[in-house]
Amino acid sequence: MAGPHDTSNQREVRAGLPIDLNSDDPTMHRADLGKEYVDFVGRNRHGPNLAKQLVHNGVDAALLDNTEKVALHRLFDDEISALDTERVRRRQRAGPADRITGLQPEGILR
Fold first, then answer.
1. How far apart are CA 40 and CA 109, in angstroms?
2. pTM (2 decimals)?
3. What percent of the chain has pLDDT over 70?
4. CB-based contacts of 2: which residues, under 8 Å, 6+ apart?
5. Are the C-beta atoms of residues 60 and 18 closer than 8 Å to each other?
6. What's residue 68's pLDDT?
7. What residues have CB less than 8 Å from 23, skipping those under 6 apart?
8. CA of 86: how far to CAs of 7, 41, 47, in Å?
9. DSSP codes joined into one string, the chain
10. Mean pLDDT highest for which of 1-5, 57-61, 95-99?
11. Would you state the pLDDT for residue 79?
């Protein structure tokens, strides 16, 4: 059941619908797409796997031919893998208090 702070995107995520985050005109609205991902995933306490899925959903929704989509999926998988590796290294070097902050929205991909 939807709560008072529930958004349609949250209901769509729970329903398993493929959503993506995007901006129609970032210069006009001063949007930062990276910040939108961190805010959406972090504020709603989703893990990094949802962020990865959102990226791939965006590729799937793009008006590109299949060859270009496959190439973009591979590129994002490589970049995400590098980020995951760095996140694991940082967590291994961090103390217990640092690991807790890794769960906070501003550190969701740490």
1. 12
2. 0.67
3. 73
4. 10, 11
5. yes
6. 97
7. 29, 31, 33, 36
8. 32, 19, 16
9. ---TT--HHHHHHHTT-------S-HHHHT--HHHHHHHHHHHTT--HHHHHHHHHHHHHHSS--HHHHHHHHHHHHHHHHHHHHHHHHHHHHS-HHHHHHTTSGGGTT-
10. 57-61
11. 93
d(C-alpha 21, C-alpha 98), whole Å: 29
Distance from C-alpha of 55 to C-alpha of 67, rounded to nearest angstrom: 17
Q: Residue 75 above 90 pLDDT?
A: yes
Please say if the pLDDT value at position 92 is more than 50: yes
